[in-house]
UniProtKB/TrEMBL annotation, chains A, B:
Keywords from the named record: Magnesium, Transferase
Record HAMAP family: CofD
Annotated transmembrane regions: none
Signal found in the keyword field: no
SUPFAM superfamilies: CofD-like
Any single Pfam family the record assigns to this protein: CofD
Molecular function terms from GO: LPPG:FO 2-phospho-L-lactate transferase activity; magnesium ion binding
Gene3D superfamilies: CofD-like domain (1.10.8.240), CofD-like domains (3.40.50.10680)
Domain of life, per lineage: Bacteria
InterPro entries found in the cross-reference section: CofD, CofD-like_dom_sf, FbiA/CofD
Keyword Aminoacyl-tRNA synthetase in record: no
Protein name as annotated: LPPG domain protein containing protein
Amino acid sequence: MSGTPYSGTYVALSGGVGGAKLALGLSRLLGPALSVVVNTGDDFDHLGLRICPDIDSVLYKLAGLSDEQRGWGRAGETWNFMQALAGLGGESWFQLGDRDLALHVERTRLLRQGETLTEVTAHIARQLGVASHILPMSDDPVSTEIDSSEGRLPFQRYFVEHQCRPVLHGLHYAGARVARLSDAVARALQAPDLRGIIICPSNPYLSIDPILAMPAFLKALQAADVPVVAVSPIIANAAVKGPTAKIMRELGVTPSSLTVAQHYRGLIDGLVIDSSDHAESDAISLPVLQTPTLMKTAEDSERVARAALELCARLAGEARKVAP
Amino acid sequence: MSGTPYSGTYVALSGGVGGAKLALGLSRLLGPALSVVVNTGDDFDHLGLRICPDIDSVLYKLAGLSDEQRGWGRAGETWNFMQALAGLGGESWFQLGDRDLALHVERTRLLRQGETLTEVTAHIARQLGVASHILPMSDDPVSTEIDSSEGRLPFQRYFVEHQCRPVLHGLHYAGARVARLSDAVARALQAPDLRGIIICPSNPYLSIDPILAMPAFLKALQAADVPVVAVSPIIANAAVKGPTAKIMRELGVTPSSLTVAQHYRGLIDGLVIDSSDHAESDAISLPVLQTPTLMKTAEDSERVARAALELCARLAGEARKVAP
């Protein structure tokens, strides 16, 4: 990323597919100056393998390996393992592609050898040629659980097996309270040349809140004296993808960028919202930058990333102006 | 297998591919009246998965899933997992097909849940529609190790990674001395209607000796008052497949059916040898049945199986004649 017009380092907070789109844009602009802190609340053990859906989505996206049509997993994927597993009477509710499986097997092997998830993820990112740092939010276990019309469900049962159909009443992030900051995340947030923190347009409840639910993380984030900017996952009162709008309605709030602003109140200094959400910008009591936020191509991702970095720079300038 | 002309039950001893060919023939003739006791000396942990090469060869062969062209693994196999694993910098010296992988993942999962290898194998055999009983030689670990020109090597390193190239000086079956008989193997060998025990044409040193090296097994085999018949893996002083002849030369013996007879001396009551080994039959001081033993098709397997069962019946008849 030589010739980048950006100086200093940045931290992004991301869930899976939606957040990874912005992370890609940021990564193309910032390269090794970007650390993406990724939600691990969805991680689970399945078939004896450790599965980290959000980390993998970010890895594949930044490595240029993700399947853009299907919207998840690897491009050129095949499903012969799953077919054979079904033939053996194995569990087949969670789809694991043949290529994707290599990542789960290799990660599980390295974890069993005693490496941390942070070390394993760094190793795999290097192997895949990813220049930015992909950091699990913690090496300690945090599990997102859903209180729903079907009772309390582990995240993947709710998200994949029940396909978010049960009505969501509340969320728990088991383990978050005691989860420790990894050295890598602490270093990223405490970097002297840190210029901004960007919350990617992931589902605030399912993907970003598990990160913020860790007091150790929240404290380090708040101690970082840099602008915090979120990119809203809502466009024209609907989520681009996934259950964000449905969950907002079930939690009794209007699916809107205003709701996103209120959700992150006290935490963010500015919000990037879609151009179509024009009426919203007045109601949001925060600096707002409007731009088309739908990301279909890598160029879209880069454009929205540029907007988020611009808002960071603008907020940093303003902060400097009011400084004594 | 209704209408079978065979009464009673049989036990076969088998290694992987070579032995599985005869096991297939026996299985087609005997169905659930056959128990195949399979070598587990080659079993090993790889990538966090428990791999049982000989059990899998027998499973796939009897389920009609084996790849006849390649000679190992599953038909219609794909290799996308391996390719992706190599891309992650993972270990790629041991080839695991995408479909084959399902078996290793499911077996490892069930073993971790506390099931025995015998239980897991029975479950998988049922799922694959195999009527005969496929029994691991023991649920206790036995590891075949090779003393070679490259030092002592675990079996798979010798067999797969070094492709049997190092000169073999000796073999060890670590754990064999204390390995216990499983209930399933004990029941098969002690069955009141047992009619014969057949040693399949597997490599005597690498595949059959690990089974016989268990004192618990050898004692149960010798206590079974039925004919024990071996099918020679040697045709015209060469092994049909694999390193049997090479190993015999390295151990200082001539690759021949006579050597096989001498190797199993005191244990077997008769030997099935190939029609081409005519000169041998006189030198072997045991009842011999000659028949073409090359097995290329399922019909070949059935024909050789019929010969082995015929020799068992003949020996049982003779035993009856000399009984008081």
